[in-house]
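#lab-general

N.A. 3:47 PM
ok so I finally got the sequence cleaned up, no stray characters, all 296 residues accounted for. can someone with queue access submit it? mine expired

B.Y. 3:52 PM
send it over

N.A. 3:53 PM
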Amino acid sequence: MVKKADLYEKNKYENTSFPFEIYYVKKYSMTPLGRGFDNLHWHEEIQYTVAIQGDLTIQINGQSYLLKEGEAIFINSQYLHITKQMNETGRYFSINFSTKLLSFFLGSLMEQEYVVPYVNDYLLPVIIFEPEVAWKEQVLKKLFEIEAIYSSKTDFAWQYKISSLLCQIWYLILSNAEVKQKANINLLKKKQERIQLLVDYVKNHFTEELSIEDIAEAAHISVSECNRCFKQYTDYSPYEYLIQYRISEASALLLQSDQTIDNIAIKTGFNDTSSFIRAFKKRIGLTPLKYRKSHS
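B.Y. 4:20 PM
back already:
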């Protein structure tokens, strides 16, 4: 398993006794706050993402999947994933929940036979639920039913209804999905650990003057392998990932502090203010000052 560091997301729940949450995501906002669009991460929870407006491109363990409006996708526990493309007005919601809700009780036969092997050993593939396939259409209906129940929270014992629907969906998946072989588990874990090391290094040293050689050395790999790894898991080159991360940190400082543009440029690793402004405008579409004013 990838170590719990910058790529790891710890989901927060309204009530820890019911480890379930739905995240509503737009391109530039997310409710409740979490790891939204264009943010590589993994978590221990199972996730179902549903495209409710516009198509999405999602990368999972370095492979891209097109999710059309009205479709959903299954992302297993511990899988690295990132939403890479969506429309300016696109919207989706992600259902995240602990596998405990599928186990009935700790150490149960259901947990040992039908949950742990499929979660911990990466046996289940990524699944896209299209309405054209009968059993997948059933899953879609249940996902939308779960969202409706959770958004209102007015039904009697609504938590129980959601838990029941999650188990029904899990049964449909286990009954119909093609189970993968265990042969590539170690390779998958090795790749995840490698990108974790690379991303950790960028995030811990982004204020410094970094070269691709510096980043590659963090994982003891060649520059060419470093490039391949970043492109596979983030769709960015190492250099572009570094700039994107600096811009992300600068965006937060612009909105959360009254520091000058010059100070923010220096604090986020840019050599001078003009290069910071150019990089920011190229990726955000606004100058830092206009960005701050538009969100004030």
